[in-house]
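User: Run a structure prediction on this.
Assistant: Running it now.
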Amino acid sequence: MFFPLRCPVCDKILPIGGEKICKKCYHKLSFVKEPSCKKCGKQLQNQEEEYCSDCRTKPHLYKRGIGLLENRGISQKSIYAIKYKNKREYVDFYTDEIAKRYGGEIDYWKADLIMPVPLHKKKLIKRGFNQAEVIAKSLSQKLGIPVSGSLKRVKNTVPLKTLKGSERRNCLAEAFRSDEPAVRGKRIILVDDIYTTGSTIDECSRELKAKGARETFFITLAIGDGM
């Protein structure tokens, strides 16, 4: 009554006990469709390709990733609202969709932990919350995989959207630290809001594997274009 559920697209209040999105708005979202890259999950334009151009040319340190939405149009605006307008309530619908669409594959990963991509403490204080942590906790409840906060961001990087691929990798070098006893031998799902080039997920994976993690995967609400 006091905190009614709102549609993650139009932000209108939804009926109590009803759906978590307006029926018309559901069809406005750009869900990733097949064919998709077998490595990062980006939607492909060519039916004959198995991997996107990025994954064909650049080795990634994670084993497999999933993105729910293409990062464009209405979908992009909705994810932006979660991150910058504190619309955390939208996350519940999106994690429901991830569990419904990809639950079988995620179960096949046999993951031990879900781990949000961390914010630096200065950025966390400024924003007030870490959207990746909100997503990770919601996914944990629906997938039955515990959340770990043992990955920390020790380097306060500039916004990566302003940088190119090689600049992103250099900027993120040694940006993360993890607790070795907490990750050794574990299969870990990294969680973030958006996947673009994979630089952040790769650098997190690099640190986790250096501390003994067995395998890493990722889940994001939105993902960039594949070719």
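The chain has a mean pLDDT of 92.
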